[in-house]
Structure to design on (150 residues):
């Protein structure tokens, strides 16, 4: 193999490295119309940690149209949202130390963002996970599936 072929191969390989890291980095947007821009998010099982950024592209304040991103088993989703109403705005409409909540961002208003990183060590590709917004009434339309892919 000559130097040109070696160098070309090295350049092509190094160009793929950022793409591998990006598989474990997710971005989702919420707006003033109570909508996430995606209804399904997934990461490969090779991701040991996921970094997720929630953007709120709307203009309304968080006390009026706040959004967060909450991950749970699908079976726990509605109960968490219901229990979150009593937890109140100061707690992001999430019960304190609720073990059913696998990960969550802060509650944000229009023009804001929140980024979290969470481990996938206790997540399984065989389990059914969902994400949702816990602001009262938003779970009806602001929800989606979260998958660990093999």
């Amino acid at each position: 193999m000559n130097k040109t072929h070696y160098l070309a191969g090295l350049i092509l390989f190094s160009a793929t490295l950022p793409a591998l890291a990006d598989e474990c980095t997710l971005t989702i947007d919420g707006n003033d119309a109570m909508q996430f821009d995606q209804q399904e998010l997934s990461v490969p099982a090779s991701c040991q940690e996921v970094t997720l950024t929630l953007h709120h592209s709307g203009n309304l304040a968080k006390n009026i149209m706040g959004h967060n991103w909450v991950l749970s088993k699908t079976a726990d989703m509605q109960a968490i949202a219901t229990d979150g109403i009593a937890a109140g705005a100061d707690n992001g409409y999430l019960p304190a130390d609720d073990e059913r909540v696998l990960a969550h961002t802060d509650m944000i208003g229009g023009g804001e963002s929140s980024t979290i990183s969470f481990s996938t060590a206790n997540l399984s590709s065989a389990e059914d996970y969902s994400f949702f917004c816990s602001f009262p009434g938003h779970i009806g339309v602001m929800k989606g599936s979260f998958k660990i892919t093999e």
About this structure: The first helix runs from residue 3 to 22.
